[in-house]
Structure formats: structure tokens, C-alpha cells
Amino acid sequence: MSESYEVTALAHVVGGRKEPTDDYWGGTRSIIRIDPAFPADSTAGLADFSHLEIVFRFHLTDPADLHPGARRPRDNPDWPPVGIFGHRNMRRRNWLGVSRCRLLHVDGLDLHVEDLDAVDGTPVLDIKPWFAAMGPRGEVQEPEWPGIMLTDYFAPHPE
Fold it and tell me: What is the C-alpha to C-alpha distance for residues 43 and 107, in angstroms, rounded to an integer?
């Protein structure tokens, strides 16, 4: 069942955070700079959206640091062991991340964003506007630990 695909970055994150950390992404501003090979009108209409969904590659992850089996989130003994597909972290086979961020404004092929939890230099594989109609349908359910773990995830960085 193993298949492979070649994917090419269509943009890169410029600015914002230099190193990935577990928390305090709130207020982080950066630019998603789209490859100039794209036509200028490839961003037409995007400014009408408040949020984007970004698919990116965790390019700073150590390939030897994979944890496909169950482990406790952030190694916290109070939380249950969870398999790789119950986590959203960078220790993944394909090193893909998905983030939803606020679109502040569009300047040609530069998308100015806030709360994107990807660092300077991150390759961006896809950019999608957030459609509310594509969000979860029905009741949302999750265990208690993600809410506790992510309390400070989008808090402003304490200076």
C-alpha cells in the first residue's frame, strides 16, 4: 500500500518565529510569500476571506525523531497514551502540518497572516481559503487533554 508523491513548495513563510515551540503563537505575524512563477492574479478574491488553511512541511524535524506508536502528549503522565494519528505534532511520517490562520491583507503574492504556527523558511505546500461551510458538521467531540494542553498555544508570547 506504500505510494509516494512528489510535492513542490508553492510558497515559503517569511518572518515570524525562527524556531518552533509548543506554545505562545498568538499574535505571531508572518508573510506567506508565493513563488513569483504564479501569476499576479492567482490571489484574486483571497482578500475577501478572513482566514486561510495552510498545508506546510515540518522542514526542521529530525527524520529519526518519529513516534508512530502511542505516547503521552508532551510526555505528560496525566494524559493518556495516544497514537500518532491522535496527535497534531511534527513527528509524522510525511512531516505535514495544517494550520488555520488569520489573513490580515494581500499584497500581490505576499499574504500577510497572523497566528500561523509555522516558522520562518517553512515550505508551504498549499493555501486554501477557510470556508465556514467546510468546517465540522454535527457535534464536535474531543477528550479533555487537548484543551488543557493548548491553553497557551495561541496566547501572546510573554516578553
Answer: 9
Mention every residue, 6+ apart, whose C-beta is less than 8 A from residue 119.
13, 16, 17, 18, 19, 20, 60
pLDDT tens track for 73-116: 888 999 999 998 998 888 888 899 999 999 999 999 999 999 99
Is 101 within 8 Å of 115 (Cβ atoms)?
yes
Instruction: Assign 84 to helix, strand or coil.
Output: helix
- The Cα–Cα gap between 30 and 92 comes to 24
CB 39 within 8 A of CB 107: no
- In Å, what is the CA distance from 24 to each residue of 47, 83, 154? 26, 25, 5
- The predicted-structure confidence for 65-82, as pLDDT tens digits, reads as follows 887 889 998 889 999 999
